[in-house]
Structures are given as C-alpha cells and as structure tokens.
Amino acid sequence: MADFDDEFRRHLRSLIVWRRDVRCFRTDPLPHGMLEELVALSCLAPSVGLSEPWRFVRVNAESRRAGVRAEFERANSEALAGYSGDQARLYAQLKLAGLDRAPVHLAVFVDPGTDKGKGLGRRTMPETLEYSVVGAIVTLWLAARAQGVGLGWVSILEASRVNAILDVPEHWSLIAYLCLGYPEEETQTPELERAGWETRSGATLPLVER
Amino acid sequence: MADFDDEFRRHLRSLIVWRRDVRCFRTDPLPHGMLEELVALSCLAPSVGLSEPWRFVRVNAESRRAGVRAEFERANSEALAGYSGDQARLYAQLKLAGLDRAPVHLAVFVDPGTDKGKGLGRRTMPETLEYSVVGAIVTLWLAARAQGVGLGWVSILEASRVNAILDVPEHWSLIAYLCLGYPEEETQTPELERAGWETRSGATLPLVER
C-alpha cells in the first residue's frame, strides 16, 4: 500500500486550499515537456468503465487563438447584456479569461463515440462520460499548481463554435477551454470574491443526514 | 506563494497513480469526524461563478440503503441484458458496487436552482454547474485516498429514483452515489483491467496540435 504521512496530507490540503482559477498570466513559457507530463498525469484520472474519453488539443496557431478570443468576446458581451444596474457595472469590470497572455491554450473534449469501456456504467447515467473528462481536468489543475503553474477554465464560449475554430471532429464535445501559465500574483482568495461578485461558503455547508 | 517541493510532487504522483475505484470494503467505520473533514476539503474545489452547487447527503438509514441497493440491482440487471455472449458472461461476474459492505454511503447532488454565482460563466455552457460538483467529488476522492480511505462511484442507478428513496428535493439532480471505507486490498491496477473488461491506455494518448 502506498504510504502517505501527515506532512504530505498537510501539503495536499494547502494545494487544495490554494488552487485558484487564474486569469492573469505571465507570458513566459512552461519548461519543455511539462505540459505533456501534466496531461499524462491527468490521463490517470478515473473514467467510467475505463472509457478514457478525454481528448486534449493544444492550440498554438495564432489565428486559432484569435478565433477563440473573438468567440469569448462575443459570448461575454451577450452575457453582460443579461445583467443590469450595479451587477452589469461589476460584471463589465471582471477579467474573466486569460486568453490574451497565457502561454498555453489547451482545449479538452469528450469523444462520445468511443467504444472503450463497452458502455459499462453509463446506461442510466450517460453523463458520466463527460464527468470522466472533468475528473481529468481537475487532476491536471492540482498537478499544475503543485508545479507553480496556474490554470484558468474558460466557459464563456459557444462550444460548437470552438470545434469549428479548431477543426476537430464534429462529434467531439467541448468540456473546457483552459489557459495555463505562471500566475502574475498568488492569492488564496478567489478572484470573484476579491471583486465583490460572490462570497465563498466553503466548508460551512451542512451535511444532510438521511 | 505556497511552496511545493519535489518530494511532495512525487507523493502527489503516487496518489494519482494509486487512486482506484474501490468496490470491496472492510466494514470498520471511518474515524469520527473524518467524513466531515473530507467533505469540507472537497468544498474548496473550483466552481463556476463561485456557485458552490454541491449538496452532500450521508445515507445512514438501513431502509434507505436497502432501497438504493435494490435500485442498483434493478439497473444492473437491465444493463446485463444489453450484453450477449462472452461479454455478458464477463459482465455478470464483475463486482460493480460496494453497497453491501461500505461503512459510508454518500449521495452527491447538484442544486440547479442555486442563485449563488448569479449565473456567471454558465450562460453558454450551463453544464459547468454539474461539472463543478464533479470537481468536488474528485477532490474528495484524492483527499480520501491520502487517508487510506477508498471510494467507489456507483452510476448504475436511475438518478430520479434515488431522489425518491432519499427524500431530497425533486429539483436536485444526482451526480454520484459514493461508497467510502477502507479497501479490502490495495492495487495500482484498475479492477476492470484485472477482470479483463478493458485495458488502460493511460498516458499513451497523443496530444493533438492545432
């Protein structure tokens, strides 16, 4: 059995506490091979029926990155139009993506057509296929932070448009568009809390008993 | 900035490699307070717009546990009927849940009606609300394994029936039904691989470049 001690658990706790959604990146690149290593680790995440349905796409071409940024701007303007008054003013001030500076752009898809796993575990809850990809992303997030690398999850995008911009198979479905790089600053407080948008409840939620 | 060294990263890697879906549990209980501590840690996971939409339900009543076991048996029989030949024979031999012995049953729901986060980040991709709950579960999974506690994710259930069995609000939606406890044995190889159902590709998947 693998053996984890109190010191490891203290550090794991720090990592979980300290992992933030990062939107302000330095432009210096990750060390050679680090992204491949992080993706390989994330592929050890649990997956329903051992389906391993994740598909990782590194976006390098400036034209494709610009296309994604434009799609974010479009979707973000529409989102802003859904708020009014103080909320709209606050929303307009938020920095909701690090697409402008992050050295790494990584799009993560699910392949719903995969035969792997032979359907096991997803007859009544087919959404566990998408959930498996989320598990890989959260694993990547923690592993990246342990290397000092920040991750920001961009969800203000029309998923199907991203398929077209990146020229990936139409039947793949976007789970997340990720920015990675070294953060400009470090903090334990979520940016949305610092900006006054929402406060964190954290551990105060009661456990319901049945 | 939190400081993580090579030794911590080695252990984190071991934890990620070693984290398994556990289906065979010892019946001895978790130490007092440990589940609360693990759930509190998992509530530090990322969530879209800081919505924190997770709802945790500990299932203690024997009648409710029996109801969930019966629902699993029903859904599993239906799943078995979908296979034939060798695959059916193999499926019938798999142990797909630890509901019979695990000392802790934990149902995890999303509350799609939450106002928290004010809708931020989920206009174009509303599924990020469910994904946030998955992030909490994967965090719980890793934190539990660092304590030597195993977790098994049961997805062979009709989600809406679980709401009725547990008498939770109808608008909550089941993300996962989890079994927790100390594993009967330790292994790095997924059970589905040991049983000959599926092999793991792991890190061999290529990173697509665009």
Topology (SSEs and partners):
The structure is a homodimer of 210-residue chains.
Chain A: H1 6-18, H2 34-42, E1 54-58, H3 62-81, H4 85-93, E2 104-110, H5 128-145, E3 150-154, H6 159-166, E4 173-181, H7 191-194, E5 208-209
Antiparallel strand pairs in A: 1-2, 2-4, 3-4
Report on the architecture of this protein:
2 copies of one chain form a homodimer. Chain A has 210 residues and is of the alpha+beta class. Chain A has a single domain (28-183), classed as NADH Oxidase (3-Layer(aba) Sandwich), CATH 3.40.109.10. Chain A contains 7 helices and 5 strands, in the order ααβααβαβαβαβ. Chain A has a 4-stranded antiparallel β-sheet, with helices on both faces. The radius of gyration of chain A is 18 Å and the shape is globular. At the A-B interface, α1, α2, β1, α3 and α5 of A face α1, α2, β1, α3 and α5 of B.
Brief rundown of the structure:
The structure is a homodimer of 210-residue chains. Chain A is α+β, with helices and mostly antiparallel strands.
Under CATH, the homologous superfamily of chain A reads NADH Oxidase
Low-confidence stretches of chain A: none
Strand content of chain A: 5-15%
Helix run count of chain A: 7
For the largest interface, the chains and their residue counts are: A-B, 102 and 102 residues
Give the strand order, joined by hyphens, for the main sheet of chain A: 1-2-4-3
Helicity range of chain A: 25-40%
Question: What value does the average pLDDT of chain A take?
Answer: 93
Say what oligomer this is.
Answer: homodimer
Order of helices and strands of chain A: HHEHHEHEHEHE
Query: What is the count of β-strands of chain A?
Result: 5
State Rg of chain A.
18 Å
CATH class of chain A: Alpha Beta
How many structurally independent domains of chain A? 1
Structural class of chain A: alpha+beta
Question: What is the overall shape of chain A?
Answer: globular
Q: Do you know the CATH topology of chain A?
A: NADH Oxidase
Would you identify the CATH architecture of chain A? Answer: 3-Layer(aba) Sandwich
Strand count, sense and barrel status of the largest sheet of chain A are:
4 strands, antiparallel
End-to-end separation of chain A: 33 Å
